[in-house]
Amino acid sequence: MKLSMMSYTLARLPEFGVQKMFAMSADLKLDGLDMVTLYDQKPADIRKMSEDYGVPLVAYTFFARGLAYPDAQNRQQGIDDCKRGIEIAVELGVPTVMLPPSPPKDCQDREAIRRNYIEGIKKVMPFAKQAGINFTVENFPGQYSPFVTSADFLAAQAEIPDLRLTFDNGNAASGGEEVGESFTRVAKFVEHAHFKDWYISAEQQEGYRAMLDGKWYRAALIGEGDIDQRSTVRAMQAAGYDKYINIEYEGNDYSGEEAMRKAVEYLRSLFAEL
């Protein structure tokens, strides 16, 4: 298994800069970097930074929120956004793209949103295949997210055989699944992965989000929350997963740099232990 920088983890912070992110990735000897949008940079310039710092670009993440809607205008916008994301991935030289399937704020019907995404992705998949790009969705957290559980993804994959998954272990837990078991169910379709952590509460608390499993979640640093990281790693080892794992941190208890360093140290120690 290989550790990769997730630009989103640092981009939320005021000291963020794309070049600084590459420098930190090189300093931490990470195996790759996942660009979550371009941050107003040109793909060629990002690719040059990757080469200069010796940090491979391994994935590109973009948004296509129009796919969540049933009407033709929104769906076409989502399809166009996906096609542009795939074109950028080709320019970056990455093999994999990820679409976070976020639900609209005005909709609380998970099944309907999932159906909308499925129908939209069906239109996009031939374009991705022709470009030689692995098209993935994430098991995305939230009460009304269309893809949270392994069953959610497998329902879509049954209709779209070339669809692949970016597996997020923290998000799997938010759907009420044991994280190792969740990974095992979808292992043969996992093209990329995210590790994150949460503090989980059975009751509502300030700063916590309601999730699909009926519990409340607040971002934690990997290794400090309630997600069973060992179970995820064991399941990955059993499945022979040897691809990339993004380090994701959404909290504010640490600076971006401190969070990355602590998470990398923890995960490398965990990998060595298991």
Record field, number of beta strands = 11
Rg over CA atoms, rounded to whole Å, is 18 Å
What's the story with the biggest beta sheet?
A: 8 strands, parallel, barrel
- Strand proportion, as a percent range, falls in 15-25%
> Could you name the CATH class?
Alpha Beta
Order of helices and strands: EHHEHEHEHEHEHHEEEEHEH
Q: Largest beta sheet: what is the strand line-up?
A: 1-2-3-4-5-6-7-11
How many helices? The count is 10
Distance between the termini: 12 Å
Average pLDDT, to the nearest integer? 96
The oligomerization state is: single chain
Would you tell me which CATH topology applies?
A: TIM Barrel
Number of domains: 1
**What's the name of the CATH homologous superfamily?**
Divalent-metal-dependent TIM barrel enzymes
CATH architecture: Alpha-Beta Barrel
Which structural class do the helices and strands define? alpha/beta
Principal-axes geometry comes out as globular
Query: Stretches where pLDDT falls below 50 for ≥5 residues?
Result: none
How helix-rich are the residues, as a percent range?
40-55%
Describe the structure.
With 274 residues, the protein is of the alpha/beta class. It has one domain: TIM Barrel (Alpha-Beta Barrel). Helices cover 45% and strands 19% of the residues. The protein is built from ten helices and eleven strands. The chain has helices at residues 7-11, 18-27, 43-53, 72-92, 110-131, 150-159, 169-174, 179-186, 229-239, 256-273; strands at 2-6, 32-36, 57-61, 96-99, 134-138, 164-168, 190-195, 197-201, 209-210, 216-220, 244-247. An eight-stranded parallel beta barrel has the order 1-2-3-4-5-6-7-11, surrounded by four helices. A three-stranded antiparallel β-sheet has the order 8-10-9. A hairpin with a 5-residue loop joins strand 9 and strand 10 (216-220). Helix 3 runs parallel beside helix 4 and helix 8 packs parallel to helix 9.
